[in-house]
Amino acid sequence: MIQLQNVNFHYQKKTPIFKELNLDIPTGNIYGLLGKNGAGKTSLLKLIGGLLFPKSGDISVLGFKPGDRFPAFLSDVFFIPEELYIPAMKISTFEKVYTPFYPRFSQKQFHQYLKDFEIPMDRKFTQLSQGQKKKAMISFGLATNSRLLILDEPTNGLDIPSKSLFRKIIARAITEDQICIISTHQVRDMGSLMDPIIILDGGKIIFQGSVEDIAQKLHFEVSFSRGEPDNVLYAERVPGGYMVVSENVHEEETEIDIEVFFNAVMANREAVLAVFDA
């Protein structure tokens, strides 16, 4: 369980990033953290991971205050940042050096994930592409079996087959006693994996809900009209027409597009979110 209560945070310039931020994240899900550039996603992840410290308010993660950085907390959290800074050593050496910090680390799982991603154990990180480094660290992070796995833009640098494999591996690896938070701009790549969805904007959580919530409240369909449809919550140009989001007044089940949902919230926030408040 992750809880943030009345959290305030700013960097040295004193411009507030978060003001009285509140957030509850229960265990057992793969959460998608979405937001525009500058919304505060990475800052939020670092606060949760104990890499930044709130100016005021309370943060509880797995029963710990992240800022205390107790070994029992750090051994149960693995954070993969967007930009990787990895020692110039072989993957096998990295394994020997860092596995003692993670009591539930599984060598068998690590080697299998590396095999799945086609990453050789005897290679140095300096010999790997950015995408290969990312896959190696994802493999290690999953093998730690930490109760909290934080992934900041995990698919950056991955090719299309690797993105598909990443989704499959994450989906089967995360268990009911774990929390996985994925922050991404590549919503279309990750939409089928993330549930619930959290949208951060202007330093505030403006939406938190499950895919089921979205399906119950909103209707998604392609309109083949020449002009932009009227009386809808959101319309986005697609080949041959428009992808339309409207209120699901007839309780029809439609296929959800998380990227389109995010765009709808950003473009017409009050009207879209009012549907969920009704």
Give the name of the CATH superfamily of the largest domain.
P-loop containing nucleotide triphosphate hydrolases
* Poorly predicted regions: none
Specify the structural class: alpha/beta
Number of helices: 10
CATH topology of the largest domain: Rossmann fold
What is the approximate shape? Answer: globular
CATH architecture of the largest domain: 3-Layer(aba) Sandwich
Q: Please outline the major beta sheet.
A: 6 strands, mixed
| Rg, Å, rounded | 20 Å
CATH class of the largest domain: Alpha Beta
Helix content: 25-40%
Roughly what fraction of the amino acids lie in strands?
25-35%
Number of domains: 2
How would you characterize this protein structure?
- The structure is a single chain.
- By secondary structure, this protein is of the alpha/beta class.
- The protein has ten helices and twelve strands.
- A six-stranded mixed sheet has the order 5-6-7-3-8-9, with helices on both faces.
- β8 and β9 form a beta hairpin.
- α4 (107-117) packs antiparallel against α5 (130-143) and α9 crosses α10.
- The longest helix is centred in the middle third of the chain and has 14 residues, at 130-143.
- The protein is globular.
- The two termini are 28 Å apart.
- The model has no long low-confidence stretch (mean pLDDT 92).
